[in-house]
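Nucleotide-diphospho-sugar transferase domain-containing protein
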Amino acid sequence: MEDRGILYFATGAKYVAEAVASAESAKKLMPGVPIALVTDDGEASPPFDRTVTIPGGEYPLLAKVRSLGLTPFRRTVFLDSDTFVARPFEELFDLLDAFDIAAAHAPLRLSTFRFKEQGIFLGGVPTCFPEYNTGVVAYRADPGVLTALKAWVDLYQKQLAGRLKPWTWDQLSFRETIYKSGLKLATLSNEYNYRLPFPQVTCGPVKILHGRSADIAGILQQINQHRRYRVTVPERFRSVAMFIEDAD
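Structure:
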């Protein structure tokens, strides 16, 4: 097992191609870091250094959750296929010297009480415990972490079986699993998981952009033209953006 590496999950030609584009952006900036792809089809080919093959046919988000436990690395940075690496991020591996797992806050809180009406089990997690986005996750392949990842799979399966809507995001089950796991969790700043579709507060260069756009390069140029504290708001949120008076 190699010490550190980047992991992707993708099934289907569309999402495999998306993962290839993301992995190419990572390989360009960190050529010495191996990259693995968990998929239901295909052999390892550039930019991937290895492929982990899984059976096909499973609900894609559940297969994604399961894929994290299949990492071939001791220290892993998992990236969703719709990410773009704008700066090297080797420090995420170093963070795992002190923490078991790391992720950034989700911009939206999906874990509301209304999910009880949909048969979703919230498990008594205090509302003050935030929801984390699972598109960028750094973690160690220690026994305790792998046990927690398996518990995440099991809980997500339970939630999917109890759903009334045709889908349920994986963040609800991740939130409950992490809360109950006892793992040392580090919270990443938005620069390491800049969720493109939502308003974001950043300070310093955005290193990992997470979202889809036909003009990723142009958006990154806008976002990173300043490194100081800044707030970015997509056009679709213009109607709900509010400005208040400065505090004394």
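DSSP finds six helices and twelve strands in the chain.
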